[in-house]
Structures are given as C-alpha cells and as structure tokens.
Specification:
The chain is mostly helical. It has six helices and no strands. It starts with a helix and ends with a helix.
Length: about 100
C-alpha cells in the first residue's frame, strides 16, 4: 500500500475509533468533523477545543486520544488535495447513510 493510501486508511481508522467520543456532545458530529478537515490543513485549534471539552468531562478517556489526534492532523496535512477531498466525501457519504437510516 502506498504511503498516501496508508495515511488515508489510518485517518479513517482513527476517525472511527475516536470521533464518537470526541464529538459525542455535538448536534451534528459529521459537520464538526468536516469543519476540522475542510481546509487544506487540519484545523488543530478547533479539534483541540473539542478535545478540551472531552478532557474536562472524561479525562481518563481523553488523555490517550491527544497524541492520536495530533497524529491525525499531521497525516491529514500530508495528504494530497485529491486525497483530502476523498476523505471529505467519505465523511459526507457516512453522514448521508446515517441520515437515511434515521428516516426509516
């Protein structure tokens, strides 16, 4: 697997593992995740704000998440523009799948 695909695969794995806890208080977790990855660079400040909220509520759960969050930021920044767009589309597709399931 190419390094770029490894980064993309690792990012999706990290997202699946940590986004539910990190964004549990969000009205629309997908929108919050997209806000972190919408620009050409991962929005670390925005992500750290969410992490700080979690760390105040559940510090034991949040502490090991911090290095992985920072790693995700580095991995996202290392992706080519096309791969960043693919990741955004994956989040949007996941969101639309959940919305469709909720309407059934």
């Amino acid at each position: 697997m190419s390094p770029a695909l490894q980064n993309l695969h690792q990012l999706t794995r990290l997202g699946k593992a940590h986004a539910p806890a990190l964004l549990a208080q969000a009205d629309d977790p997908h929108a919050e995740l997209l806000a972190m990855i919408w620009g050409p660079q991962f929005d670390r400040e925005y992500a750290l704000d969410w992490w700080a909220r979690l760390s105040r509520q559940r510090p034991v759960e949040a502490m090991p998440m911090l290095p992985e969050l920072l790693s995700a930021a580095e991995r996202f920044d290392a992706l080519a523009t096309r791969q960043q767009q693919l990741l955004r589309r994956l989040v949007l597709r996941h969101r639309s799948g959940q919305m469709a399931a909720m309407s059934e």
